[in-house]
From TrEMBL:
<keyword id="KW-0413">Isomerase</keyword>
<comment type="similarity">
    <text>Belongs to the PrpF family.</text>
</comment>
<protein>
    <submittedName>
        <fullName>Putative isomerase YraM</fullName>
    </submittedName>
</protein>
<dbReference type="Pfam" id="PF04303">
    <property type="entry name" value="PrpF"/>
</dbReference>
<dbReference type="GO" id="GO:0016853">
    <property type="term" value="F:isomerase activity"/>
</dbReference>
<dbReference type="InterPro" id="IPR007400">
    <property type="entry name" value="PrpF-like"/>
</dbReference>
Amino acid sequence: MGSADSDPRQLNGIAGATSTTSKVAIVAPSSKPGIDIEYTFIQVSIGSPQLDFTGNCGNIASGVGPFAIDEGLVPVTPGRDTINVRILNTNTGRVLVETMEIDQVGHFAEDGDYTLAGTFSTGSTIGVAFEKPAGAMTGSLLPSGNTIDSLCIPGTIVRPTCVVQASLIDAANPFVLVDASTLPAVLHDKDPHSTFYLDFIEDVRRQGAVAMGLARDVQEAAKTRGTPKIAILSSGKGETSPEADLEVTAFSMGRVHGSLQLTGAVCLSTATLSDDSTGEEP
């Protein structure tokens, strides 16, 4: 898994050339009291031979519990139909509790009727609860001390210097949640997948990393692509999302992410409950 010879297509491997499918979890039984399983998350870079051990991943965390059950790493009492597995993420030192359905022979019951938006089939439910998620990497829910920060983004030959507003939240994972209405006008007609747009988003992410205390400067922030993550928030109720309160475009490893990360959902829900944060604004 990875990008041999820095090939972004990842032809010599199994990752699939997306950040969503370039993830690794190293799973083992735990000897710690009250913990069933420990896992270390690794984000595999795309287009470079690098591994990122910072932060957590809620999407792959959802698979750790079922894997542990099917591999016999967690004992299952015969006759039960659900189980709670307490899982320690070693990257952040935080505990997750996963609730899963069990079949008659004590394996994870994969089949079910639950439908998750953005997927193409049904399955059983996996409940993931994050215990004490605040300050997962920085030690503080609001690492900068502010609910909203103004980040100055230096200009380039093709765009002027500008200031964007963002909430810097560290809950399950550190995130830079940017108010879309403060993005410069030069981005309004650009495709989020374009190099122009992605370069700007990366500049914002690096400034956010410095403001959160995750890097001393933007040069150091550039070396860690996995954290903090970044998402653009705008008001819902539009033509494309008439029933949504918020529209979210999430990014990961320098590209548009195919979904809102589970840890991103934790940060976003936290922001909506925080007065004056980007997520709280209508």
